[in-house]
Amino acid sequence: MVSRYVLFLVSVLLVKNCFSQTPDIIVTNGKIFTSDEKQLYAEALAIKGNRIIAVGKKNEIEKLAKPSTKVMNHPFHPVEALTREEAVIAYTSGSAYAEMKDDKGMLVAGQLADLVVLSDDVFSIPLQQLPSTHSRLTMVDGKIIYNTLKK
Questions:
Q1: What is the rounded CA–CA span in Å between residue 22 and residue 100?
Q2: Cα-based distances in Å from 71 to 29, 80, 85, 126, 135
Q3: Distance, CA of 54 to CA of 50 (rounded, Å)
């Protein structure tokens, strides 16, 4: 099980300058992957409506809270965690479902060839190594757009 890691796969750029808005929800004590090379992980995030308005250190984000803000302090317990299999399904076919795409999300004939080859087997490596896993090959619509594999 993926324990002590918040499985927020934040696929947007890190938002730093939205501090003028009052968040509806603040989530703290997570390990949030941001996709920002300058700050790959954050401790907290603030949400307004259906948008992430700030991501950063716990103390910075908590300063945004007003009396109407719900603060969710998450010392995640293993019973609350996703298994690795559930996380991969959520990231692949779950994402395709959310996009209402019937032609991606699974490795079967007839699906779009959108896939990655990872540096490690995410189902068997130690939990501490998961954050260092990276793409070795990326394909979008059947075209290789990134490749570090030896030919």
A1: 31
A2: 11, 18, 29, 31, 34
A3: 12
**CB burial of residue 64 (10 Å; 0-12, 13-18, 19+):** buried
The rounded distance, in Å, linking the Cα atoms of 42 and 56 is 5
HSE-CB at 46 with a 13 A cutoff on CA atoms is 27
Q: Is the pLDDT of residue 9 over 70?
A: no
pLDDT, position 123? 94
CATH number of 1-81: 2.30.40.10
Query: pLDDT tens for residues 50-82?
Result: 788 888 899 999 999 999 999 888 756 666 667
- Evaluate if residue 10 carries a pLDDT over 60: no
